[in-house]
């Protein structure tokens, strides 16, 4: 008689079956799993240990945002002025009020300025002033200087556009490789030293095109294969205010506008009238980008928005933390051992337990915004950060991934053909984490297999 059969006959809790840790040491990993439609825990191992969750912390931010902001929440960008407008000239300063829209890009800025042109403004005879009061301060993400080439660590900002990235777009014209800067950024000169030739295929265009930046010159050199036509790579060349101002100037000129005379920061005066307002797409669109592709900058923007829209102390970061902790209290979820820094998991300090994150997953799946929350998670073997993982389980498995140098993490749901769902959290903190991703995947697979077997045994 097998152990599994004996357990089935005696109706012993599946917790009696220890998780198969495989190559994982017991002190490296924390595990928790429970059915969404049930009340008992299915499996756990060190479930109360404080662990670095890496990007699975984004699930906490997404859950809090849906509950505190609502799925209909939109970020509003505005242009205001108290200057006189006559004969197509705005005779004074223009105020751009930014609120940290995480998906704001060149297309949105173009629409904002197109509407300004439709109001009859052709020349801005004053400065462009950035009103940045929505965020009193930006939460930290310290300790990643050495990871600059491996993690996307652009900080959030009230006027973040295109994630502060300028694209080098490559193409061929009359047999010669060309490159353009998108957006054009008037302060920079593009020095194209590319030569035709090279490999038969393109692969990663950065292997063929070397980019160097000196002052206001961006030099691109190398041998560009014709197969690289239509590819792109990004450069990070300006601070947030500089990028916003340069993007504004480039697009405004493209639309036939003149000015402004300069760019600075400034608070919108009380008597300023609204010239243009533009609302973002609803919150779930941002959450899909954040969770499927693990975008740190966008997650941090949502986190700060929680503080900005739920003001208590006036400190955006402290108010964001309070928004999460008060929600935990309302839902009866333990407040410890949660430690928050920026809500994105791009942190050496953030901590959570597998049980605490699991309780949040259960609350999310049982709540009114379950569809929006679950839809934001990557589908195994199909999209996002799970596109090449868990092929044997397929899209019935939806998991948010987490990756740092010493951390690998998985958290989400598996849905049985019968519709029953299992919430799963697996957190690995170890100096050898990079070598153990396969073992962590196997651990999650083992939990799903055992849960599926239990469902089959049920009458």
TrEMBL record:
Keyword Ion transport: no
Top enzyme class: hydrolase
Name this protein carries in UniProt: D-alanyl-D-alanine carboxypeptidase/D-alanyl-D-alanine-endopeptidase
Family matches, as InterPro entries: Beta-lactam/transpept-like, Peptidase_S13
GO MF term set: serine-type D-Ala-D-Ala carboxypeptidase activity
NCBIfam families: PBP4
Gene transcribed to yield this protein: dacB
Pfam families per the UniProt record, alphabetical: Peptidase_S13
Similarity comment text for this entry: Belongs to the peptidase S13 family.
Source organism: Vogesella indigofera
UniProt-listed Enzyme Commission number(s): 3.4.16.4
UniProt key word RNA-binding: no
Keywords: Carboxypeptidase, Hydrolase, Protease, Signal
Extent of the signal sequence: 1-18
């Amino acid at each position: 008689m097998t152990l599994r059969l004996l357990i089935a006959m005696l109706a012993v809790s599946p917790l009696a079956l220890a998780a198969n840790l495989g190559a994982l040491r017991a002190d490296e990993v924390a595990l928790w799993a429970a059915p969404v439609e049930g009340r008992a825990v299915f499996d756990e191992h060190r479930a109360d240990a404080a662990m670095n969750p890496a990007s699975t912390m984004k699930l906490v931010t997404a859950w809090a945002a849906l509950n505190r902001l609502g799925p209909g929440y939109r970020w509003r960008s505005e242009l205001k002025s108290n200057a006189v407008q006559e004969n197509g000239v705005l005779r004074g300063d223009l105020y751009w009020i930014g609120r940290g829209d995480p998906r704001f890009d060149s297309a949105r800025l173009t629409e904002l300025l197109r509407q300004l042109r439709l109001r009859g403004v052709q020349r801005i005879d004053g400065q462009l002033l950035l009103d940045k009061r929505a965020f009193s301060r930006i939460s930290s993400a310290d300790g990643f200087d050495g990871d600059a080439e491996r993690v996307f660590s652009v900080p959030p900002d009230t006027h973040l556009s295109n994630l502060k990235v300028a694209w080098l777009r490559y193409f061929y014209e009359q047999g010669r490789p060309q490159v353009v800067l998108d957006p054009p950024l008037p302060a920079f000169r593009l020095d194209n030293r590319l030569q035709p030739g090279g490999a038969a295929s393109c692969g990663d265009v950065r292997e063929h095109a070397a980019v160097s930046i000196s002052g206001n010159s961006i030099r691109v050199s190398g041998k560009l294969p014709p197969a690289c036509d239509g590819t792109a790579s990004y450069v990070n060349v300006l601070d947030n205010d500089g990028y916003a101002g340069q993007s504004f100037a480039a697009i405004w000129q493209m639309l036939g506008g003149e000015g402004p005379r300069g760019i600075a920061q400034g608070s919108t005066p009380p008597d300023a009238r609204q010239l243009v307002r533009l609302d973002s797409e609803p919150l779930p669109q941002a959450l899909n980008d954040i969770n499927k592709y693990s975008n740190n900058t966008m997650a941090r923007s949502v986190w700060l928005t929680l503080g900005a829209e739920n003001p208590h102390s006036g400190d955006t970061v402290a108010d964001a933390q309070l928004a999460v902790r008060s929600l935990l209290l309302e839902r009866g979820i333990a407040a410890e051992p949660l430690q928050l820094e920026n809500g994105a998991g791009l942190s050496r300090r953030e901590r959570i337990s597998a049980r605490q994150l699991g309780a949040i997953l259960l609350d999310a799946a049982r709540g009114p915004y379950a569809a929006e929350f679950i839809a934001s998670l990557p589908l195994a073997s199909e999209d996002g950060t799970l596109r090449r993982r868990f092929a044997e389980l397929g899209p019935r498995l939806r998991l948010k991934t987490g990756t740092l140098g010493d951390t690998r993490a998985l958290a989400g749901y598996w849905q049985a053909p019968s519709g029953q769902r299992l919430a799963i959290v697996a957190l690995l903190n170890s100096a050898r984490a990079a070598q153990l991703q396969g073992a962590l995947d196997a651990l999650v697979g083992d939990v799903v297999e055992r849960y599926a077997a239990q469902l089959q045994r049920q009458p």
